[in-house]
Amino acid sequence: MTPLALEAQTFFLSGDELSCTVFMESQTSLPADLPAAPEAKPSHGATADVLNFPKVYLEKRSHARSVSVEKTRPAEIDLRKRDLKNALSGVVVDESAWDNPNSAESRALNWMAAVDPMNLDVATAPPEILVNERYVVVLLYFATNGNNWIRTDLNFLSGSSVCSWHNSQDRGVTCDSRDSVESIDLYTTNLEGTLPGELGILSSLTELSVGTNSLVGNIPLSIGNLSKLEVIDVTSNVFVGRLDEALFRLPQLERVYFGGNQITDQLPSSICESSSLQLVTGEFNGLVGTIPSCLGLSISLTKFDMAGNFLVGGLPEFSPTSVMEEFEVRENLLTGTIPVSLTNLTTLSTLDLADNSFSGRLPQFAGAAGQLSNLGIEDNEIDGSLETIFATAPANTLEVVQVENNKLTGRIPTRIGLFQKLQDLWVHNNFLTGTIPTEIGLLRLLDVVLISGNLLRGSIPTEVGNLVNCRGFSAGFNELDGTIPTEFGNMAWAILIDMSSNRLSGIVPTEFGNCANLVYFGVSGNERLIGRMDELLDALSTSLEYFTASGTSLSGSIPTTVGRFAMMEDLHLRAIQLTGTVPTEIGRLTNLLDIDLSINQFRGTLPSELGSLGAATSLNFRSNSFSGALASDFSGW
What is the pTM of this model? Predict the structure, then answer.
């Protein structure tokens, strides 16, 4: 039966306060994309002929309000759509989009006209809040594929005010005391599509959070009209295009997050002009150009993170009135020197300049008055003395020092023992000299110590055994001598221990077996290290994935217990003094990728079980005394 629009006359009856509305048929059809109104059913005792008469709809009149009990009819839909269009005229970005039945704009309009349980009287409702803002929020739903949102507790498209379209944690839409939309929080909701430009009419909006979704297109320029906006978060989407100068001039804007997109633009100079802007993060986009020179003059900006872009040029000078706390520009194309006006800021807690092309001397820091906690200048061409850091950085706050892969000289100072909060010491691949100070053992919070690739001499102090929380200790490729302290066995949480390519001597301690989580263990390139390989392998944890002892003077054989290292991927025992046969149990190391047993004194035949090492990419057994033919399983490997 074709749904028909009806003209109405209403008669009010006393007693039950029922209104009887009689509708005369007209020929306007319902929109095709809306559910058809249910056909009228005859009451008890009626005949099918009733369906041929004008339809009668009854609605119960309450003292508080009138509640409709029937579906909206086509004529009313057309009328409501007309009223909605009139109310929204001048508000929508593109009114022609209403003519496209597949557009988000058309779907939002039809929903409000034909489906919306709120059934607004558009002609009398306050347009700004009840009509305009409701339309914008409904449009946002359709424009971002609301049917596929992973948050199903937000009450969107319910019959209540949009002010209740949120969950118990206020995710969704919340309003101010005037019932005007104040916050939209749809972080990690699986939004897909584009943000509608109509968001710019939400004049009371203070927060827009749509980070970690799959939104595409441009960030609408109309957002630059939201004079009350304080926070915008569009992190981790697929936004492209440019950054709007007007956005950063908004008078109450405090935080802007746009990292993890594909924005290819220069940073606007308006980023410096706001007296309210505190935080700007745009990491891992395609930003180009230079850092605005006015940035160092900002009196409000506390965090600036533009890591992982294509910024060029140098760093700006900073005013003593700057309140910068976190300055992060790693992985760009920046050059020049590090300004002392930046490192001298007493408010600075994080300085991350890694992976650029900075050069010149390492500047001094703010001393005890400073708040420096995290220092990262690795992978540059900085020279100067490492001692500058520990002489001028605050001992009571410094936690992370990552200065590897530079041209730093000097010693690891004994004063390092004063830095009781230090957790990460990454100074490898520089030109450091001197010894490892015993005071390093005072740093009980040390998590990672990477001092390899320098010119360090002397012995490894036994005080390293005090680093019971240390998970990584690498001192390889130095000129260290003496014996390996048995106290390494106290590092129960260690994952990595490497002392390769030094001048160490004596027995490799079996106490390394106390390191139950050890994954990487390296002592290769120390030709005066001795001990029995079978005893060492019997002691080491089965968590081991990488073991290298090539170029040492370890002796003995590979024990049959080698089969227990089920996680082993790399086994390098080249050019030592191993004897005996290769045990068949080595075939159990099915994760093995690289095995090197060359230049030893093995004899016998290679076990056919080596054919089980299907993941292996390199097997080296040359320069031994093997005999016999290769097993067929192995020859087919």
Answer: 0.85
